[in-house]
Write a structure and sequence with these properties.
Nucleotidyltransferase, domain 5, single chain, 6-stranded mixed beta sheet, transmembrane helix, 17 helices, Ectonucleoside triphosphate diphosphohydrolase 2 isoform X7, membrane, binds 2-acetamido-2-deoxy-beta-D-glucopyranose, 5-stranded mixed beta sheet, alpha/beta, transmembrane
Length: about 500
């Protein structure tokens, strides 16, 4: 009789164990048991000098959560920015094909149709739209024709305003560095609310500064109000068109040509043939040129490695003569004093990185940055080439870039030593590039809700723990019983 009960008990126990295990697998704690299925999004960042494609990914079942969108892969489009195809719009579309083909491979085939695809163009296209609006429209139409040929869900090609570009860069930086919301180790969210990071972006044709501010902006064009995860943010932002790295270099070149002397920011021993057409074709330099010039004419210009003259040439880019507000950065633009920590990316990072790693100069303070720019600007062409053999194409322009950055931060935005010590120069957070593209996608896909996310994941986790304990208890009981059965089998006298 007892033998019969025991032999029935064993299979029923095993069944209980199996059931518990099954229950456990049904509970939606996918991150513990299997890799979650992913969703993807693609953003083409059509900058003035080149286009980059970013593919982002996030877990498919947690549309409302955050801290989890990251960069899956990226691709650099060969050739110039789409605005450089003003006279050959179809070439702009064609230029994107190689990266889009990569996207077809990078995103799993069964996800293609559900993957949103965005193209955002920035200051290069803003400039083109200022001078030749019909050419800008044609370029956007051409890239749209190419993008709609792909299976992704294309959401349109747009020119971002300077304000959007600044704010989305700020959103990206604070999202990646978990300033809005943090993901705790047991699976619940909490809001750190220790203050956000300001963002500074230096592109090819414009530069943006964006930071949270307590007081309302005196110029409404500089203020954006955001509601993210139930928190309210008042953000100051401004984009300076024609103050991106390439446009600044072009304006300095035009300035050097006006003096009829050598270029003080170029290294001594370096010279180049300058096409007048190339110098004055931008709205940023048009006013500096002669009224009429032979469009195929070129001038030979050499460098002279003169830091003081270069600094004075750069200082002419900033106008401090008038301000209709209580305080301004430059060119009469309202700006409250910079507060809090900042992250500076894109060309800010590349310039700092060159000073630090190639030149081996300390740049921890503004004073050191100024000294580093002076040292760099004193180098001759052969000295520079010896230091950075691989960088030939950009090498003559680092002096101007560093001098401009130093003046923009100190005199332009008004960073003092204390404020500058809170600036970090960084191009990525983890594996994800810092720029406007991620913030743009987060906004357009509603991945950042206005209200705080619930604690759904936290409850998932506790039910998982309960089941785990249950599973373990059942298993233990089964083992104990098995052991007893084995013992009683050894001593037949007990029956
Ligand atoms: C996020 O969750 C809230 C409430 O749970 C819901 O009302 C809202 O529609 C969700 N948003 C998205 C984008 O899924
Ligand atoms: C070009 O600029 C005009 C005037 O600011 C604007 O209305 C238009 O939308 C812009 N074009 C594109 C394609 O964004
Ligand atoms: C413009 O310059 C080119 C080359 O320097 C020269 O051949 C041409 O005759 C010039 N045209 C005019 C209109 O001066
Ligand atoms: C500075 O701006 C003022 C007002 O906009 C203008 O009158 C002046 O010519 C500018 N100065 C320079 C050097 O561009
Ligand atoms: C994000 O998108 C919403 C609409 O979905 C819009 O109202 C809001 O202004 C956008 N945020 C920014 C920073 O542009």
């Amino acid at each position: 009789m007892a033998r019969k009960v025991l032999s029935l008990l064993l299979p029923s126990l095993l069944a209980a164990v199996g059931l518990a295990g099954l229950l456990l697998l049904c509970v939606p704690t996918r991150d513990v048991w299997e890799p979650p299925s992913l969703k993807y999004g693609i953003v083409l960042d059509a900058g003035s000098s080149h286009t980059s494609m970013f593919i982002y990914k996030w877990p498919a079942d947690k549309k409302n959560d955050t801290g989890i969108v990251s960069q899956h892969s990226s691709c650099n489009v060969h050739g110039g920015g789409i605005s450089s195809y003003a006279d050959n719009p179809s070439g702009a579309g064609q230029s994107l094909v190689e990266c889009l083909d990569q996207a077809l491979r990078d995103v799993p085939k069964d996800r293609h149709r559900g993957t949103p695809l965005y193209l955002g163009a920035t200051a290069g296209m803003r400039l083109l739209n200022l001078t030749r609006p019909e050419a800008a429209t044609n370029v956007l139409a051409a890239v749209t024709r190419t993008l709609t040929q792909y299976p992704f869900h294309f959401h349109g090609a747009r020119i971002l305003s300077g304000q959007d570009e600044g704010v989305f860069g700020w959103v990206t930086a604070n999202y990646l560095l978990e300033k809005f919301i943090k993901y705790g180790w047991v699976g619940q969210w909490f809001q750190p609310r220790k203050g956000t990071l300001g963002a500074m972006d230096l592109g090819g044709a414009s530069t943006q500064i964006t930071f949270e501010t307590a007081s309302p902006a005196e110029d409404p064009a500089n203020e954006v109000q955001l509601r993210l995860y139930g928190q309210h943010y008042r953000v100051y932002t401004h984009s300076f068109l024609c103050y991106g790295r390439d446009q600044v270099l072009q304006r300095l070149l035009a300035g050097a040509l006006q003096t009829h002397g050598p270029h003080p920011c170029w290294p001594r021993g370096y010279s180049a043939q300058v096409q007048l057409q190339d110098v004055y074709d931008s709205p940023c330099t048009a006013a500096q040129g002669p009224l009429t010039f032979n469009s195929s004419a070129s001038i030979s210009l050499s460098g002279s490695s003169e830091p003081a003259l270069c600094r004075s040439l750069v200082s002419q880019l900033f106008n401090f003569s008038s301000c209709h507000f209580s305080q301004c950065s430059f060119n009469g633009v309202f700006q409250p004093p910079v507060t809090g920590s900042f992250i500076a990316f894109s060309a800010f990072f590349y310039t700092m990185d060159f000073l630090r790693t190639v030149m081996g100069l300390p740049v921890a303070t503004l004073q050191q940055l100024e000294a580093a720019a002076t040292t760099l600007c004193s180098q001759t062409w052969s000295e520079l080439q010896a230091r950075a053999p691989g960088e030939r194409a950009h090498l003559p322009n680092y002096c101007a870039g560093a001098t401009f950055m130093q003046q923009l931060l100190s005199r332009g935005y008004g960073f003092d030593e204390r404020a500058f010590s809170g600036v970090t120069f960084q191009k990525k957070a983890g594996d994800t590039a810092v720029g406007w593209a991620l913030g743009y996608m987060l906004n357009l896909t509603n991945l950042i809700p206005a209200d705080p996310p619930g604690l759904r994941k936290g409850t998932d986790f506790s039910s998982w723990v309960v089941l785990l304990l249950l599973f373990a208890a059942v298993l233990l009981a089964a083992l104990v019983l098995l052991l007893r059965q084995a013992r009683s089998a050894k001593s037949p006298g007990a029956i």
